[in-house]
Every structure is written in C-alpha cells, then in structure tokens.
Write a structure and sequence with these properties.
The structure is a homodimer of 492-residue chains.
Chain A lengths: L2 H20 L4 H17 L1 H12 L3 H24 L6 E3 L13 E7 L3 E4 L13 H9 L3 E4 L5 H17 L7 E4 L5 H8 L5 E5 L2 H12 L7 E4 L5 E4 L1 H20 L11 E5 L4 H14 L3 E2 L3 H16 L4 E5 L8 E2 L2 E6 H6 L11 E7 L2 H10 L3 E7 L2 H5 L2 H8 L2 E6 L38 E7 L20 E3 L2 E3 L4
Parallel strand pairs in A: 1-18, 3-4, 3-6, 4-5, 6-7, 8-9, 8-15, 9-14, 13-14, 15-16
Antiparallel strand pairs in A: 1-2, 2-17, 10-12, 11-13, 18-19
Helix pairs in contact in A: 1-7, 2-4, 2-6, 3-4, 3-6, 4-5, 9-10
Chain lengths: 492, 492
C-alpha cells in the first residue's frame, strides 16, 4: 500500500470504530459539541480570516460573513438536536386483540448511517468546506466525517480541522469522529469513495467532478449514495409587464447578482430568458451600462480563473452569441468583471453547449419572439437549483402553466428576487432535478440536510425501558411525534 | 425499432404526457381515485381470487387476505392524501428588516418526481404487483406508473390493470397514468429502466435482479433512483434465558414462520443464532419435530421451486452443515415442506455462501459456543430487513451493546416475535442496510413508501394566491405544517 492508501484506510477504519460510540451519543451532547466547534472557530479570530483571504482572494467582509454563516449553521443544527423532533419519531401502538391477527406495536425513528466522506468546496472555504453544511449535517446526524480538503485552501482547512479536534477533545469524543485528508490530486477522493467503511458522500462542485464520484460509488460492491450538488445556470424568466415597467431595476439587480463574489456561486443567474417586447432594448442597454460600471474581483484560484476565461470565451465563440458587454479582464491582476451574452431562443435551443454552466460572473440573455417560444426554451431547460420569475403579480396569475413547468425543472422557485443568497432554514431546498444535483429528494443547505445521512429503523414490540428516549411512552424529551397518525407532544 | 421497444417507448411517453396534468390533480381527488381502484378490484370478485390461485398455487385464504391487504393499502394512501399533512409543508416567514440582509419568505412542500416504473413481485401477485405497495405509493405521490408484470401471473396482472384503467376512466384522468407491460424475458425491464422519461424504479425480488437494475440505472446519462427491496435472511437471535425457558414455544413459532406461505416471504426467518446453553438440544429436537409435522405447499412457480431445491441442496452440500430435519419434497405434486440446517458459528462466519438467502421454507441454525462468538456472528452479518431477538426482558436489559449492534444491521428490530407479517402503517420500516435494500433511507411498506417518489421544492417570496393550498397563510387544507420551526395547524 502507498502512504496515501494507508492514511485513508486508517482514517476510515478509525471513523468506523468511532461510529460505534458516537452513534449513541445523545442529541443534546452532540448539540453542545457542534456549538463548541463554532466557539473554537471564533477563537481562531483574525488568523482564520486572514488565512482565508490569502488563500482565496475573497474580500474581508465576505470572509467574515461566511465565517458567521458557518458558525450559524452549526448552531442551527445544534438547535435542531436540542429540540429533538427531527428524528421523525413515529408510533403505531399495538392491538393484541385485533382480528384476524394481533397488531404489533411499532415505533420508528431516524438513526445515523455511518462514516460520511465530505468534499470541501472551493468557492466556500468555510461554509462548504471542512466544517461546512455537509460536515455539520453529518455530525449532527451522529456520523463521523472524513473531509477531503479542497486544494485551493489547505491552510484554512487545517485551521478549521484543528478547531473541530479541540471540540472533540473537550467533550472526550473519539478522535475518529473527524479527520481531514489533504491531497492536491484526485487519488485520495477516489480512495475515500471506494473505501468499504464509507456509507455516504457529500460533494459540492462541478458536474464533471460530481458525476465521477457518482459513477465510482455505483461501481462499489456495496453502492452508497453520493449527494452531489453540481450547480446550475439558474434561469431568470422575465415576463412582459415586468420588462416594460421595471427593466432598469431588474437589469441592475441581475448584474449585481451575476457579479456577486466574482460569480462564484452555484446559484449565479447564468441565464436570462425574456421576450423581445416593450422595454427589451432598454433592458439590454441597461445591462451593458451595469456591466461596464461593475467592480472587478479576483477569483478563488488560478485554475478557476483559467476555466472561466476558457468557458466564457467558448460561449462567445459561437457566431449566434453576441456580447451585450464584457468587462475586460486585466491579466496582470487577474481580476474579472461581469460578462453578458445575447442569443436568440431558437439558437439557444439548438445548441446544447449554451445550456452549460460557466462558473464565474457570466450570464446569457435568451431573447424569445413569442410567449410560445419562451415556453419552448423552458421545456428545453435541464434540471436547476433555482429558477426565478420576474413578473408583476397580475401577469403571473395568468401563467399557471408556466409556473408548473418551471417548478418541474427546479428545487427553488423565486418571485422577483435573485437566486444568489441561500437562506439557511428549514424551508430551504438547495438541490434540484438532475444535473443540478444527483438526488433531488435532498437538500444540501438548511437543517433538512441532515436527512441525507440518516435512515429509519422500527422497533417492534420492544420493552419500554430498552427503547430510545424518543420512543418511550412518556416522551421524556418532549418532542413532536406522529402517534397513531396524529402529531402530538403528549405522552402515550 | 422492435415491437417491444415501440410499446415501451409509447407507454413512457404517454406517462410523461399524463404527468403534466396528473401532477396537479388535488390530493383529495387522487385519494378518491385510489379508493376507486380498490372498489374495482373488489368488483372482480371470485374471478380474481381464482385467477391468482391458478397462477400462483396460493391457497384461497391467503389470496383473499392478500386482496384485502391490497385494497387496504390503497385506502391507507387515500387516508394519507385526504389528511394532506404528508407533504411536509414547511414555512419560514420572511423578515424584510433583518440586518444585514432581509430574510426571504420560504415555503417548501413535496411534489411528484415523474413517471415511475414498478416491477411486479412473484411472491405477492396482488400486494406487490400491478397495484401493490409500489404502484399505490407512486400514484398517491402524483406520479404515473408503468408496471412490468411478473411473468408468473400474467392473467392476474391483466385483471388488476383493467381495474385501474376503469378507475382512471371514472375520474376522467389521462390513460397514461397507468400502463402494464407484460414480457416473459428481461428485455422490457431493461428498456423501461433505461427510458429517459423514467424518473424512479420500484422493485421487490432477488438481489441479483435488483442489483442488475441498480447498475442499469447508474449507467444512464441521467441517473435515477432504483428502490430495490432484495430480501434478507432475517436473523433470529435467541438469548440463553429464553432458550432455557421457552425453547419449545420458540421452536414452534419459528418453524411455523419459516413454513408460512411455503417460505415465500422476504421476511422469512432464514437464520437462527443461539448459544449451546441449557435447552439447546431440546430446542433442536423440537425444531425437528415441528418440521416433520409441518404441512407442505406448492411454490408459486416451477422456476422458484427449482431454485429452492438447488439453493437448499447447495447449503446442505457443505460438510459443515448438518440437517436438523428436512421434509422430503414430493416431486409428483411439487409440494415443499420446511427444512432446517445446523452449523457451528465458526464455520458460518468462514463460509460466505451460508449468508445468502435461500428463498423458500428454509432456515439455518447457527450454534455459538459463547456470547462472544455470538457477537462475532452478528458482526459478520450483512444488512437485513429484520432482526429478531428472543429473550426475557431481564436478560435483554443487560445486552445494550448487542441491541446497538443488531440495530446497525437492520431496518426493523423485533422482540420475541417472528419477522413474517409486515404491518402496513406509518411506523413500519421495510428496507434495511445493503444488500437488504438498495437504499436503506426508504421503506417499501407503509405510507412512508410515498417518500421515494417525491422531492421537495421551495417557493421564495411567492404571491399568496399563486402558492399551492398547502402553503397559503390561511392553511385551507387544515394540515400539519412546520411554521418557523414549530408544528402547527394554525393559520399564519
């Protein structure tokens, strides 16, 4: 075995051993552990902030914001565990005299699946990396985590990993509950996904990367789920009345969203679909103005910058695509500004390459001649994380068919907003039909993300004192339970 | 294209078209449709009962029971839809003045995924076939269904399909909501799983069959989930005190469970694990007696009968396995009776072939020398649908580590019962860690089975009157909703 193979095998075996005790750690203790991780991250202070800034070119405000989001996420999962109702305790009491056969007593709850492998994301060095949403949700569910750190920010990952290990020590939890593997290549990721002790995988990144992991996992003797959030082009559909009345404001909002964080968001609005009605020319003009005025920024790695140049140039190389406006990059500083292209609906439908995500501050306006053509463009869309409708309430009310079609293509449908900015809450869905994510039934943002890493088990006719607290008659944790098909906090 | 390819392509395209309207049919109407299917099945009367009996060799009582289970399942899903709370409506209200950025209004619920392909199971010609649990849960969720009928009971499938089509007509629902494909080979199944319009697959059957479908699905350009329930050996662990005090009753109960329905259940107790303590010899003796006295029965197809003979003979061909007792088959009638083998724990652990399911009235007693050895046997077990513990409450109380280990291996843990008999209710989990099923996070029995065929979507800042009823402020359907992290039926 090579050194890397050894290291990974050791991490996964250690995680599997740690699982034997960590899975039985009560929710309230896991909550305290998650909060402690947040505290340890805060204690890293400016060292962490500056390390992230140095490694990713992100500005201080964004890094501090993302740090708060990261500790905020940990606290939200802690809240969830303290409340306790997330285990979906479901009880159907027995009936020993039921005819023709007695009815058993059945009690179900969610339990952890086992060691989870998490791939750190390049664009979120804190919120989707060593202790990001994937790690927080897997740990909250009772699973040890082995993180493959993103090569763009190794020092950041190292700092955060140390914080987690400190928190583990403070609660005398087994070391194997968390491990960080750093490797600039793909080998360690492959080995982690293939390891027999790995029970699930969380990934945020490109479609190519995500699908490679999905394929690897499906080839294992024991297939495991890979939750890959692979981004999307997040179409924004602008209806005629909104275009007529609000084109200036919409253009302004959209370009700001396209350019936010150098466009390095999976919810970047990469596609703007509208009809060539009144206001269209002014809308395009305004986009051009906004693009020209937008500030530039450096991307989080040279690799990402090169890919952005390559992919945006590829789009503009199609003769059907004209440039509304593109901020010239300054190779010396490596700064990028927004770029927006324009294409006719028929050409867009005919050219599959134009449906692909360009990761960075890029967007493509698709100009439709008629409402029917707009419907055809929608029909041609692939699965998306988000779709946004810019409309007046009145005109939207007449487009129920369009709403239904858009809903079928995405995980989150927005009205008159921008898709960037993903609220961490129970009602968030961050995951959409393929290829936006590998399993649209789950979210990678918000507390429901925990559902990816747990599975239900039923106890049948089990003695009261040996049932987990969540399922005991007296409901000692005072949680919401579905008892004989009614939600209640009452005891039985 | 061949005729079969044409037929399947037509069925799937028709399903996709039907989905466009069926997905928007209100829950209460879908409920009435499901009840109507049950009524139409009841109207088939004795013709259906006799057709099933002729095609499957199942006795009348069992067929009538299974018919009731089938209509009962449809009614339970109808209840679920009428109640409406199953969509997991989750609302986080907005806060436009939150600092530093406003909080959006987010509202999430479950929506259908699209056309589902269901494979009829041979051992449940009604309850897991054309309109069994998979079909009922997919239709309940709002998805069209295309069933690949099991070749062992084509006439039964045809009758039931007609009942469903009648129900569709009565409610003026599109024909494409249900289609039955019959084919004695594997080709149609492959084509159905590969068709681009197929969004999910439900399967109950062998590990070989299930894994073939999982592999096929993973090779599609758009991977789709395959929910394969692939059976298990359903270990029964007998602890010393229970063995000492209750061995006669336990032996009686177990052999009856092994022999129930000629052992043609995925929950057949195919493995009995105990220690050679007081009562062991008498337990084995009693098993022998019960086996000898047990009635014989014909299996549901010649193919299954031949496989059973082959697989049980294979187990007995291992020199380490002795026969406790095996009812001789009568080749003339093709009847089988129960057969039970005996093997030492060390030999069981060393021989992977002995861990495989023998589909039929077969079980293997694993004799352990010590509690430690029993723990090793448990450690060596693969994922199971069920595990049963036979014990006195007192001795169980001292075996928390064993309980934790068993829980980690199964989807349902029973105390002092037998695994056959799968209650259809909210708290049922029928699905376990691989290879018992392809995705342990879901169940194929009970109303939660609907969760396999739906996905969450969030509406962000959407106008009230365009939200689905489930998410409107006034909660017109009076369903349970998670509003700002509290379960409530109140309006907002």
């Amino acid at each position: 075995m090579t050194e890397l193979t050894d290291q990974i095998s050791q991490a996964m075996e250690q995680a599997a051993r740690a699982f034997e005790s960590y899975k039985n750690v009560p929710g309230k203790l896991r909550a305290a552990f998650l909060r402690q991780i947040g505290d340890e991250i805060n204690l890293l202070g400016d060292e962490l902030i500056h390390t992230v800034m140095n490694e990713t070119n992100l500005p201080e405000g964004r890094v501090r914001g993302e740090k708060n989001r990261t500790t905020g996420q940990l606290n939200k999962f802690a809240d969830l565990l303290e409340d306790g109702s997330w285990v979906e305790a479901t009880i159907d009491t027995g009936d020993p005299v039921r005819s023709p056969i007695p009815k058993p007593d059945l009690r179900k709850l969610l339990i952890p699946v086992g060691p989870v492998v998490v791939f750190g994301a390049g664009n979120f060095p804190l919120a989707f990396s060593a202790t990001g949403g994937d790690t927080a949700s897997a740990l909250a569910g009772g699973n040890p985590v082995v993180v493959k750190g993103h090569p763009a920010h190794p020092k950041t990952s190292q700092l955060v990993a140390k914080a987690i290990k400190k928190a583990l020590q403070k609660f005398a939890l087994p070391e194997g509950v968390f491990e960080l593997i750093q490797d600039s290549g793909h080998k360690s990721g492959q080995l982690l996904v293939q390891h027999p002790q790995t029970k699930a995988v969380g990934f945020t990144g490109s479609q190519q990367g995500g699908m490679a992991l999905v394929k690897l996992a499906s080839q294992r003797p024991e297939p495991i789920p890979v939750f890959a959030e692979m981004g999307s082009v997040n179409p924004v559909v602008i209806l005629p009345e909104a275009l007529k009345d609000n084109h200036t404001a919409i253009a302004e909002k959209l370009v700001a969203s396209v350019n936010l964080g150098a466009g390095q968001f999976c919810t970047n609005p990469g596609l703007i679909i509208t009809t060539k009605r009144k206001g269209f020319e002014s809308f395009i003009e305004e986009i051009g103005k906004q693009v020209k005025a937008a500030p530039g920024a450096r991307m989080f790695s040279d690799q990402v910058f090169q890919n952005y140049q390559l992919n945006s140039e590829k789009v503009f190389s199609f003769s059907e695509v004209s440039s509304v406006e593109a901020r010239t990059e300054t190779p010396a500083t490596g700064e990028v500004g927004p770029a927006v292209g324009l294409v006719k609906a028929a050409d867009f439908i005919a050219q599959p390459n134009l449906h692909e995500e360009v990761f960075g501050p890029f967007s493509l306006v698709v100009a439709c001649d008629t409402d029917e053509q707009l419907a055809e463009v929608v029909q041609a869309l692939k699965g998306q994380l988000t779709i946004t409708i810019q409309a007046t309430p009145d005109e939207l009310a007449n487009r129920k068919e369009l709403i239904s079609a858009l809903l079928g293509k995405c995980g989150r449908l927005l009205f008159n907003g921008v898709p960037t900015g993903v609220e961490v809450c129970a009602a968030m869905q961050h995951g959409g039909p393929f290829p936006a994510s590998s399993d649209s039934r789950f979210t990678s943002v918000g507390v429901s993300a925990i559902k990816r890493f747990v599975r239900p088990v039923s106890y049948q006719d089990f003695p009261q004192d040996l049932l987990p607290e969540e399922l005991k008659d007296e409901n000692p944790l005072n949680i919401w339970r579905l008892v004989n098909n009614e939600w209640t906090k009452e005891q039985i």
